[in-house]
Amino acid sequence: MGGTNPYIKYPHIERPKKKFKVTFLPQNKVVEVDPENLPYGETGLPGSILDIALKNNIAIEHACGGVAACSTCHVFVKSGRKSCNEAEDYELDYVEAAPGNTVESRLSCQCVPNGEEDLVVETPIWNRNLAKEGGD
Ligand code: FES
Q1: Residue 66: exposed, middle, or buried by beta-carbon count in 10 A (0-12, 13-18, 19+)?
Q2: From ligand 1's centre to the CA of 64, what distance in Å?
Q3: pTM of the predicted model as reported, rounded to 2 decimal places
Q4: 106 vs 5, residue with greater confidence
Q5: 91 CA → ligand 1 middle, Å
Q6: Percentage of the chain modeled with pLDDT above 70
């Protein structure tokens, strides 16, 4: 189930109004997201990349349960970043602590696409041994 951090005041997040696709790397698995079915109620903010991934059996680590209190769900949003909510300071604190972070880095539990673009999301190579690639 999704959760929120009671110590964080979450901003308003724009919800998707049309279908979009997310390509997860390195699995190269493409999933179509229909806003009619969101949120999935998995983990992280409703409609987040983590929520989408887990619903589609893409394993991304999420040690804190998707409440912006770790950096294990770190991903690179390779394209489609402009369609995602802006990272808040509380997210950036953990992104900056994530190994190998770049301008493409987001916490997948806090990154919510609005559906205006398709996305390509990659799990960092150093997290792949932890990820159950292919899902289960
Ligand atoms: S799962 Fe901990 S910050 Fe995303």
Answers
A1: buried
A2: 5
A3: 0.89
A4: 106
A5: 9
A6: 91
